Amino acid sequence: xxxxxxxxxxxxxxxxxxxxxxxxxxxxxxxxxxxxxxxxxxxxxxxxxxxxxxxxxxxxxxxxxxxxxxxxxxxxxxxxxxxxxxxxxxxxxxxxxxxxxxxxxxxxxxxxxxxxxxxxxxxxxxxxxxxxxxxxxxxxxxxxxxxxxxxxxxxxxxxxxxxxxxxxxxxxxxxxxxxxxxxxxxxxxxxxxxxxxxxxxxxxxxxxxxxxxxxxxxxxxxxxxxxxxxxxxxxxxxxxxxxxxxxxxxxxxxxxxxxxxxxxxxxxxxxxxxxxxxxxxxxxxxxxxxxxxxxxxxxxxxxxxxxxxxxxxxxxxxxxxxxxxxxxxxxxxxxxxxxxxxxxxxxxxxxxxxxxxxxxxxxxxxxxxxxxxxxxxxxxxxxxxxxxxxxxxxxxxxxxxxxxxxxxxxxxxxxxxxxxxxxxxxxxxxxxxxxxxx
Length: 438
Ligand SMILES: Cc1cc2nc3c(=O)[nH]c(=O)nc-3n(C[C@H](O)[C@H](O)[C@H](O)COP(=O)(O)O)c2cc1C
Prior knowledge:
Layout: E1 9-14, H1 37-49, E2 54-57, H2 77-87, E3 92-98, H3 104-117, E4 122-127, H4 132-137, H5 146-164, E5 172-175, E6 180-182, E7 192-193, E8 198-199, E9 214-217, H6 222-231, E10 234-237, H7 242-258, E11 267-276, H8 280-292, H9 296-307, H10 335-348, H11 352-360, E12 366-370, H12 372-384, E13 390-393, H13 400-415, H14 428-432
Parallel strand pairs: 1-2, 1-13, 2-3, 3-4, 4-9, 9-10, 10-11, 11-12, 11-13
Antiparallel strand pairs: 5-6, 7-8
Helix pairs in contact: 1-2, 2-3, 3-5, 5-6, 6-7, 9-11, 12-13
């Protein structure tokens, strides 16, 4: 299959109420029921109008203890994407499902079913879930060690891939005259026996319309990157500076090659949460309005969730000491995000209040404040200088933050020939221009 000229890729990272933790309180945020299909369809329709690659939903199967300060309800991703696949046409649907709190056969079947129902528009964001509260919902006293979560994920994904491949693409014959629906010889048991899972198969859902659902992953620790280099076709990452982005990009492509995979068939997608205004002053005013609505207690709890560290005993307006965060190898939760936060504190000598404000916008992902032209400049700079193939666009508020991007930034990128003017295919694999599964 001929590769298309390299173009940008965009997902919208939907966080109920907007990615800025306090934007839900702002008059610009639409007061709609966040668990309604109408809300999610509205977001998907705007993303589809902007010709974006996919709507992406994160997932943590536990209620955040920040429900006082922010809308944190999360619909089950399989149910939500099932509904969205019925009310959308071309936009990709990226769902997050954990390898720690599920079984391979069930996940392979659910994701394959969504892929059939959506006509091949599904991506699976593979997470190992490092949130303590989730373990307590599944009869455990705590989360497994970082290393063990990834060992289980490796066995899990190998089993799922084999199940998805257990039907040859031409297994269904549908020969009614000769009473042959399918050629059983083209449907295969997998007899998977791994460290954690034993699965006979085959799957009871035929081969995906796109060959296989798209595999997505977001681990940036050593272990996480090694796992992603073996399996991921799309990699999400949090990078704050161009140099950090370039280093991750080059390093990750090297790992893909070491795994005898084609790096040009893997997309590296960086988180970006801009606040956009008609003028820079307008954008700055809006950002200040959001920040004024922040509850410090929220930020402290969130940082504890990522890093496992409670910073509430530190004075708000004194620089945080370098040893405020543990040695990275000892972090069992989000290792890469903890490293990112510790580097940020050290690099800029931040006080606790300043750190909370920096994390407020997008949980450590890249933020910026500016006009559509300035946002387009930043995007083109990262795309053209080996730091990103695309972005997880994280609207600070909804739906306005997304329409600002679709109506303000996308047309600029289209005029510059950097982004599609229309979809070139029907499946998520087409949107990312990945070709057949490697
Ligand atoms: C864009 C992005 C989205 C993520 N979404 C989720 C999520 O929905 N659920 C989850 O448990 N972890 C999520 N993560 C966390 C990752 O899956 C992973 O645990 C984290 O990046 C730390 O990985 P590491 O310890 O290998 O560095 C996300 C990370 C990124 C960068």
